[in-house]
Specification:
This protein is mainly α. The chain has one domain. The protein has six helices and no strands. Helix 1 runs antiparallel to helix 2, helix 2 runs parallel beside helix 4 and helix 5 packs across helix 6. It is globular. The two termini are about 25 Å apart.
Length: about 110
C-alpha cells in the first residue's frame, strides 16, 4: 500500500461519500451505506495520521489497529471517543445516527 497523507485520506473519503450519495439517490441504499462507512473510516484514519511523530517508530500493535476496519476502535485511536460520547449524550439524533454507523463493517456489502 502506498503512503497516504492526511489530505489524500480526506480526498478519498470525500469521493466515497459523493459516490454513496449518488447510489442513495438511485435507490441503492445498501451499497451507499457500504461506501459511506468507508468514508467514515478514511476520515478517522486522516485524524489518526496527525498522531504520528517524526523520527519515531510507532508501537506495532497500534499500527495493526489502524489498518483494521473497526470504527469504534478507530475513534479511540483518533482520540475522539470522549468528544463523541459527550456530543452524542447531548444530542439524541447524533446518537441514533452514530449507532447506525457503528453497525458498519467491511462486509456490510454482503
Amino acid at each position: 500500500m502506498a503512503d497516504l497523507s492526511k489530505d489524500q485520506l480526506t480526498k478519498l473519503a470525500e469521493e466515497k461519500l459523493a459516490d454513496a450519495k449518488l447510489l442513495l439517490s438511485n435507490d441503492r441504499p445498501g451499497n451507499a451505506y457500504y461506501l459511506a462507512g468507508y468514508a467514515v473510516e478514511l476520515l478517522l484514519k486522516a485524524a489518526i495520521s496527525s498522531r504520528f511523530q517524526a523520527n519515531t517508530i510507532p508501537d506495532p500493535s497500534w499500527l495493526r489497529d489502524i489498518f483494521q476496519h473497526n470504527l469504534e476502535n478507530l475513534v479511540k485511536l483518533a482520540l475522539l471517543n470522549d468528544d463523541l460520547k459527550r456530543d452524542s449524550d447531548a444530542d439524541d439524533e447524533l446518537k441514533g445516527r452514530w449507532d447506525i454507523v457503528l453497525e458498519w463493517n467491511e462486509t456490510s456489502r454482503y
